[in-house]
Amino acid sequence: MKWNQVSVLTTSEAVEAVSNILMELGASGVAIEDAMDVTNFESDAFGEILDVSTFDHIKEGAKVNAYYPETIFLPEILPTLNSRVTELVSFGLDIGKNEIETSEVVENDWATAWKKYYHPVTISRYLTIVPEWQDYTPHSADEHVMKLDPGMAFGTGTHPTTRLTLQALEVVLRGNETVMDVGTGSGILSIASKCLGADKVYAYDLDDVAVASAKDNMNLNPVAHDVEVSANNLLVGIDKKADVIVANILADIIIELIPDAYRCLNDEGTFIISGIIEDKEDIVLEALYANGFEVDQRFQQKDWLAFIVKKSIEE
């Protein structure tokens, strides 16, 4: 069977949003080439460093490659794709060149080609993300190896927002907590929460593809077999209480989430937010303060920010 490849040349900042648009427009899978991934591997302070000279890689920006069966008429999709990617600017995202290219591929090429972009990622001394098709030997007894098939969802550990969120979870979790993972994507934050001792974990995503992918990834990690994954619009209608709520999503969506996060969070609980570009820091903080939160810790990698926040305590 023949397939068509649609490639969007964009920025590291916009890859997850662009990927989501392509999937919503009917793509059967996506592969991401990101120059930032190579930078992260070269500067990684933990474990073995990948020799980036051994494989071809993009030198600037990022490219999202999506795959459509030949039965889908691309001229009907491409104008909508261009319009929706352009609209991301209104959310504060830098979309870069926003150049779209198309080409033909055969099924065997696309079904496995994207795997060459994924390698074990050491987040910290305690957390390592490993593609499910690769063998990996832990470096220490207390290293948690999280298996992941990242092909159909987002959050593979290489993007700064995911790294910052995982590091924040390490700071917060001590064991036996109830965690809500909002916008779970690949499910990596839920898996990490279980590795770090969380008792109950509820994972939510609006996208059915992400829900299915997250469930598959839970099954790859026995520690996460009891994570409850379901489709939901943020925390709308959720009446459970959590000790920790974690969300690695766009800043504008975080602002929408804040009131429900306050409602669902225990009084002594913790709200972890990431996916915030530096230019959006002020408006996110303003929304947090207005809804009764105060910042406990701030994390930064390049232009990306994450925060650990708590409910304000009135004296």
Automatic annotation (TrEMBL):
Residues that bind S-adenosyl-L-methionine: T162, G183, D205, N248
Localization in the cell: Cytoplasm
GO cellular component, one term: ribosome
EC number: 2.1.1.-
Source organism, top-level taxon: Bacteria
Pfam families tied to this protein: PrmA
InterPro entries recorded: Ribosomal_L11_MeTrfase_PrmA, Ribosomal_PrmA_MeTrfase, SAM-dependent_MTases_sf
One GO MF term: protein-lysine N-methyltransferase activity
Reaction equation(s) it catalyzes: L-lysyl-[protein] + 3 S-adenosyl-L-methionine = N(6),N(6),N(6)-trimethyl-L-lysyl-[protein] + 3 S-adenosyl-L-homocysteine + 3 H(+)
Assigned keywords, A-Z: Cytoplasm, Methyltransferase, Ribonucleoprotein, Ribosomal protein, S-adenosyl-L-methionine, Transferase
Residue ranges the record marks as coiled coil: none
Family designation: Belongs to the methyltransferase superfamily. PrmA family.
Function: Methylates ribosomal protein L11.
NCBIfam families xrefs: prmA
HAMAP family for the chain: Methyltr_PrmA
Protein name: Ribosomal protein L11 methyltransferase
Organism encoding this protein: Vagococcus carniphilus
